[in-house]
Design a protein that fits this description.
Length: about 70
């Protein structure tokens, strides 16, 4: 996993991202993310805290790097 991707996300968003921030980074609609989390197909692990859903910046960075590797491998 790229430390550069991690550093970027940590600097811009902090150690955890809420659904709106994930939507911004992934360029997805918030509702799409919510739907995918509900049906278990969202590719980034998330957790609940105080009734809100979050993802760890390292997990999101790993997903972004895996997407890049998949495209480069084509």
């Amino acid at each position: 996993m790229s430390l550069l991707t991690q550093a970027f996300l940590l600097e811009k968003y902090g150690p955890r991202l809420n659904v709106d921030q994930m939507a911004e980074v992934l360029q997805m609609a918030r509702q799409t993310i919510n739907n995918q989390m509900s049906d278990g197909s969202f590719p980034v692990p998330t957790y609940r805290a105080n009734g809100r859903r979050f993802a760890d910046y390292r997990d999101l960075a790993k997903h972004l790097d895996e997407c890049r590797e998949a495209v480069e491998g084509v």
